[in-house]
Amino acid sequence: MPLKIVLLGDKDSFNTHIAEEFIDLVKAVQSQGEDIRIILGGGKTPIDVNERIVHYTSNSKVDWSRIVIFFSDERCVPPDHSDSNYKMVRKTLLEPLKIPGKNVFRIEGELGPERAAMKYEKKIARVLGEGLESVFELALLGMGADGHTASLFPGSKAIKETKRFAVPAGKGPEGHERVTLTYPLLNRCKEVWFMIRGKEKQSAVRRLIHGSFNPEKCPAQGISPADGELVYILGDGLNLTSSIS
Ligand code: 6PG
């Protein structure tokens, strides 16, 4: 898969670049008469990006009723809990853009990790078809300072999953049990964009780009879409130095 790295100096250009690229991709897919299917990540980075997308969309020709939203992972909390990724995306993107609820497929974390994972796999199959012949056009992921992405944590069982599309992920740093999409699904996306900013991630970025391939230690390295494009969007003080600390 082709790898592209985009370096953006400050937070504003980071958020603007992603918002513009996102809207361009949605318009391009819609111009082919398709409903675009997108996987959104959680955490804090997407908050400002989503708000920039909303800001830019006022003069874009995007039909937000023709976008289908899935989630890369979720904490096992109710959907109105302050730690819920769904709640963050609902407040910063879904509600402002009036994306219809029927197009939004959240992970029902409140059911507990195993039941939520099983139910989510059924939702994925329903939307994408059992054979999964069609895939997601885009996954917008983040990366933690430990190299995790989605809720694929270093040394976890979830990174070894080769068949299931959604599995229990163990506990996240905030203490909640989690559910995560797995490499078999994430690596079937047509495009995967990593949105990474903040100096605290510099050593994880070095390992991601320059480290020997070891998804056990740096799960973000395990994301390599077989027939898709992988983009690392790095901003806010990150650089590409090769020395691994
Ligand atoms: C989550 C996310 C997770 C996130 C990274 C980066 O549920 O926490 O899906 O993978 O993308 O932890 O988070 P920040 O954007 O907050 O640094």
Can you give keywords for this protein?
245 residues, alpha/beta, six-stranded parallel beta sheet, three-stranded antiparallel beta sheet, 6 helices, 30% helix, binds 6-phosphogluconic acid
Explain what you see.
- The protein is built from 6 helices and 9 strands.
- The chain has helices spanning 11-31, 45-57, 85-94, 113-128, 183-186, 202-210, and strands at 3-8, 36-40, 67-71, 73-75, 138-141, 166-171, 177-181, 191-197, 229-235.
- Strands 1-9-8-5-2-3 form a 6-stranded parallel beta sheet, with helices on one face. Strands 4-7-6 form a 3-stranded antiparallel beta sheet.
- Strand 8, helix 6 and strand 9 (229-235) form a beta-alpha-beta unit.
- Helix 1 crosses helix 2 (45-57).
- The two termini are 27 Å apart.
- Bound molecules: 6-phosphogluconic acid.
- 6-phosphogluconic acid binds at residues 41-45, 72-73, 85, 142-144, 148-151.
- 6-phosphogluconic acid (6PG) binds at residues 41-45, 72-73, 85, 142-144, 148-151.
